[in-house]
Predict the structure.
Amino acid sequence: MPEFNALLEGYKRFREYSYPRQKARFDKLSTEGQHPPVMVISCCDSRVDPATIFDTGPGQMFALRNVANLVPPYDDSGGMHGASAAIEFGVSGLDVKHIVVLGHGQCGGIGAALEGGDLGEPGPSFIDKWMTIIGDARDKVIADAPADPQRELELEAIKVSLVNLRTFPFIAEREARGEIKLHGAWYAIGEAKLFTLDETTGEFSAVG
Ligand SMILES: [Zn+2]
């Protein structure tokens, strides 16, 4: 398994070079616990690592990664909701001050949702069900037929996730009290460029 051995080699480099340089930080995080001020919700895509994009180290960011960086609507019907559990812990447990929904270009989940059909395993698929979070947005993008439907749906999905975050009572209450801020952002992989959403205009603009 050369791929796994490559991981172990990386671990050895970390132990030899990176860890000693950051030992004080790791010690502090271990004794004092984590207090990240920011939660980031990003895609599982291997090219979109939020710690790389935002140049952060351990303890700075509470990260949730899932297919297409989606937030499901609040649902207290008793299912096993991994994404919602992470959001609850970030907000109620860690008291993060910001949540960033980080979308990205060339998103496989978004592309598959646009094409429709079965996205994962034949028959009942976790991905098919998961992508119904943006079912309405997908239908609207297809009806509008923009020049770049993939990018349009990537941007719309970020807005849907922000709407869904506000269906969680503990987020809506904190936002109303000014204790938490929600942000939308989209990352272009090839150019390594970040765009942020202005929720008053609905437009994304490049940072810097
Ligand atoms: Zn993606």
